[in-house]
Design a protein that fits this description.
Layout: H1 6-9, H2 12-15, H3 23-26, H4 55-65, E1 72-75, H5 78-89, E2 96-98, H6 106-113, E3 117-119, H7 131-137, E4 142-148, H8 160-169, E5 173-177, E6 199-204, E7 217-220, H9 223-232, H10 240-252, H11 254-276, E8 281-284, E9 291-296, H12 299-308, E10 314-315, E11 325-329, H13 333-344
Parallel strand pairs: 2-3, 2-4, 4-5, 5-6
Antiparallel strand pairs: 1-7, 6-7, 8-9, 9-11, 10-11
Helix pairs in contact: 4-10, 5-6, 11-13
The chain binds pyridoxal-5'-phosphate.
The site of pyridoxal-5'-phosphate has 13 residues, from helix 5.
């Protein structure tokens, strides 16, 4: 069991913070006339502020993820959780974080916005962790290490033994971003949170659940850490529509979600085989996600050609270790076929 002093890791101003107390915080109980929050009394369906504690939605997410509600933080997308981790635990202009590259760009952008220095060691040429170089990069001011598994844009799962080695040795927080975990058979790190008090697992409703437009991300961690995020979050960060629509999806939409994930996984392998047979494709990297990274003969030119067919993929060719690579999201069978047809004409 790896335990750390989570409160000691918090940003100095956060340790002493008294959070904003919203009208709905100050009053808890039964009432029928609400004159406390300067809301408009005439019903629109949305004239009341949403529940700042997201009680119903948290209930549903907690039972879905098999965790306690006090291990759960809900964000306006995972992107908000990432930002709050910087704001909660990193001192601007002083602390640093480690972000092995290439990975999801939002970690570095969020670090920059918060004026936190980024140490960016490279993954290996197979996109695996170089544990020694990561641990060597740690300084006394390193607060967070971001690990994305399956990784974006490479698509591979990180080796759990290596993640464990980093987590064991590091005295700060290890953020394990599992945005794509539903597209693999690998177990989530949620099941090991009791072993590692310094792990924060991020998941999202944007990918497997098909709810990117709702903006709902999840942070799962030790209750003390969740308490810090709760203290610094905007009171109404999850809007009323998202709270009710996501609750509904969890309670009644899991069949649809499972069918979508199954089809995307099948299509991923169909897409891989078809891509590999094309003249313009050099290789396709193995993927545990809902996209594939493909090395092309000329990524930039092919990207432009696809645009002429109305097909947009992600050009990652200027990213480290992704020379000549395009990242292609797995679409429907029809969409994937149109992509292949367009590529075959080149
Ligand atoms: C898509 C993605 C997310 C999701 O972010 P949301 O803000 O929840 O939509 C998070 N992490 C990674 C690595 C992603 O690729």
């Amino acid at each position: 069991m790896k335990s750390i002093d989570i409160l000691a890791l918090a940003r100095e101003s956060v340790k002493h913070l008294r959070p904003y107390s919203s009208a709905r915080d100050d009053f808890q109980g039964e009432a029928s006339i609400f004159l406390d929050a300067n809301e408009n009394p005439f019903p629109t369906g949305y004239n009341r502020y949403p529940d700042p504690h997201q009680r119903k939605l948290k209930e549903a997410v907690a039972s879905l993820k098999k965790v306690n509600k006090n291990q759960l933080f809900l964000g306006n997308g995972s992107d908000e959780v990432i930002d709050l981790l910087f704001r909660g635990f990193c001192e601007p202009g002083r602390d640093n974080v480690i972000i092995p590259q290439p990975t999801y760009g939002m970690y570095s952008v969020s670090a920059a916005i918060n004026n936190i220095k980024v140490i960016a060691p490279s993954l290996t040429d197979t996109f695996d962790l170089d544990v020694a170089s990561i641990l060597k990069a740690v300084t006394p001011l390193t607060k967070l290490i971001f690990l994305c598994s399956p990784n974006n844009p490479s698509g591979n799962l990180l080796n759990p033994k290596q993640v464990e080695a980093i987590t064991e040795s590091f005295g700060g927080l290890v953020v394990i971003d599992e945005a794509y975990i539903d597209f693999t058979d690998a177990p989530s790190w949620i099941s090991r949170l009791t072993e590692f008090q310094n792990v924060v697992v991020l998941q999202t409703f944007s990918k497997a659940w098909g709810l990117a437009g709702l903006r709902l991300g999840v942070g799962i961690a030790d209750p003390l850490l969740i308490g810090i995020l709760d203290t610094i979050k905007p009171p109404y960060n999850i809007n009323a529509f998202t709270q009710s629509a996501a609750t509904e999806a969890i309670l009644h939409g899991s069949g649809q979600r499972e069918r979508a994930v199954k089809e995307i996984r099948t299509e991923r392998e169909v897409l891989r085989k078809k891509l590999e047979a094309l003249r313009v494709v050099r290789r396709v990297f193995p993927s545990d996600a809902n996209f594939v990274l493909a090395e092309m003969t000329d990524a930039k030119a092919i990207y432009q050609e696809l645009l002429k067919h109305g097909i947009v993929v992600r050009d990652r060719s200027s990213v480290i270790l992704c020379n000549q690579c395009l990242r292609i999201t797995v679409g429907t069978a029809t969409e994937n076929n149109q992509l292949i047809l367009a590529l075959d004409k080149l």
